[in-house]
From TrEMBL:
Name of this chain's protein: L-amino acid N-acyltransferase YncA
Gene3D superfamilies, sorted: 3.40.630.30
Keyword annotations: Acyltransferase, Transferase
SUPFAM superfamilies: Acyl-CoA N-acyltransferases (Nat)
Provenance organism: Nitrosospira multiformis
Residues covered by the N-acetyltransferase domain: 1-161
Signal peptide: none
This protein's record includes keyword Magnesium: no
Any GO MF annotation of the entry: acyltransferase activity, transferring groups other than amino-acyl groups
């Protein structure tokens, strides 16, 4: 697997992964009818750095990171991850997570914060905890899960001082 910075032309391959990830309505707030341009802007708007994970030249996952806040809050990074559901459980998320932590450290960030991890998203919560994140906040009933109804979302955080680059 190779992880590299994404270019705008990668979005053709990223779009079906985006659609497949949001369709179940269990992990991201995006409505299923989110448009191609909206999704494109999510990955490629100014200030956002996106990466793709490839296997044999095929995009199998992507992540992005961005400053979590402007100005005086801009030393904390925020990131989002999507793995092609057909490739889940094979270590792609873990590799992208580690890559992202290193890239954020290289870029000079002090910490990384995930603002909205759906509490019932076991794969994500477990992966982020294994990568050193703690749950620092609980947003009660912040996510309308397609089958479970209102569920909590977590704010997860880790400092980057121990990340080797
Ligand atoms: C969450 C996501 C990024 C994980 O990526 P992945 O490639 O499937 O996960 P990995 O194979 O790298 O698994 C890493 C760890 O995640 C956990 N994990 C993965 N799938 C799991 C599952 N179905 N249930 C519980 N834990 C799971 C395990 O702890 C695993 O640890 P291990 O490496 O010690 O076995 C991916 O499933 C995804 O894109 N999900 C939909 C979008 C999403 O939830 N994004 C994150 C939003 S915060």
């Amino acid at each position: 697997m190779n992880i590299r910075q994404a270019v705008e032309s990668d979005f053709v391959a990223m779009w079906p992964i985006f659609q497949a990830v949001i369709a179940p309505g269990t992990t991201y707030v995006f409505a299923e009818e989110t448009s191609y341009p909206d999704a494109f802007a999510y990955w490629f708007a100014p200030g956002i750095t996106s990466y793709v994970a490839e296997n044999d030249g095929q995009v199998i996952g992507m992540y992005k990171f961005v400053a979590n806040q402007r100005g005086l809050g801009s030393h904390v990074a925020n990131a989002s991850f999507m793995v092609n559901p057909r490739c889940s459980g094979k270590g792609v998320g873990r590799e992208m997570g580690l890559h992202c932590l290193r890239e954020a450290k290289k870029a000079g960030y002090l910490a990384m914060q995930f603002n909205f991890v759906v509490s019932t998203n076991e794969a994500a919560v477990s992966l982020w905890q294994k990568l050193g994140f703690s749950i620092v906040g609980i947003l009660p009933k912040a996510f309308l899960h397609k089958s479970l109804g209102y569920v909590d979302a977590y704010v997860m955080h880790r400092f980057l001082d121990d990340i080797q680059i």
